[in-house]
Amino acid sequence: MLKEFKDFIAKGNVMDMAVGIIVGAAFTAIVKSMVADLINPIIGIFTGGLDFTNRFVVISGDVAAGTSLDAAREAGASIFAYGSFIMAVINFLIIAFVVFMLVRYVNKVKDAAQKKEEEAPAVEEPAGPTELEVLLEIRDSLKK
Fold first, then answer.
1. Do 87 and 67 contact (CB within 8 A), yes or no?
2. Residues 19-77: pLDDT tens digits?
3. Is pTM beyond 0.90 here?
4. What is the pLDDT of residue 123?
5. How does it assemble (predicted)?
6. How many CB atoms are located within 10 Å of the residue 11 CB?
7. Distance between CA 67 and CA 70 in Å, rounded?
8. What is the C-alpha to C-alpha distance for residues 87 and 54, in angstroms, rounded to an integer?
9. DSSP string computed for the chain
């Protein structure tokens, strides 16, 4: 069983998948930083700094008006935090769009490289004698 597990791990597919997951995790950090540090501030300029994060409805418990979401949670109140959900959806859409644009750019570069490769003239190898030429040569040598 241990040998089978070693064989499974040693296969290229598993190693490729592991590398993909690690690179994906690192890429996720880059995309999150890009959204939080670059794109959201620009969007904030146009929306007047609109932030839904502290929007919630108190279901049960005592929470003073104007209390932040974190303070309401610390107070032990049961809350319906619709603002956090809205912000998560907005961030998802922004991240999805950024990833789409990056993938689109990578695909264009890849297609351009592939197109150049296809356009490159293939090196022609010298053609050898055809089957008919060989047969004619054999016939001629047998006549002699």
1. no
2. 788 888 888 888 778 877 887 788 778 877 777 777 888 888 888 877 888 888 888 88
3. no
4. 65
5. Homopentamer.
6. 10
7. 8
8. 10
9. -HHHHHHHHHSHHHHHHHHHHHHHHHHHHHHHHIIIIIIHHHHHHHHTS---TT--EEEES---TT--HHHHHHTT-EEE-HHHHHHHHHHHHHHHHHHHHHHHHHHHHHHHHHHHHHHSPPPPPPP---HHHHHHHHHHHHH-
Amino acid 108: pLDDT: 92
- The type of residue at 26 is A
Evaluate whether 75 touches 63 at the Cβ level (below 8 Å): yes
pLDDT above 70: percentage of residues in the chain: 93
Length of the chain in residues, anyone? Answer: 144
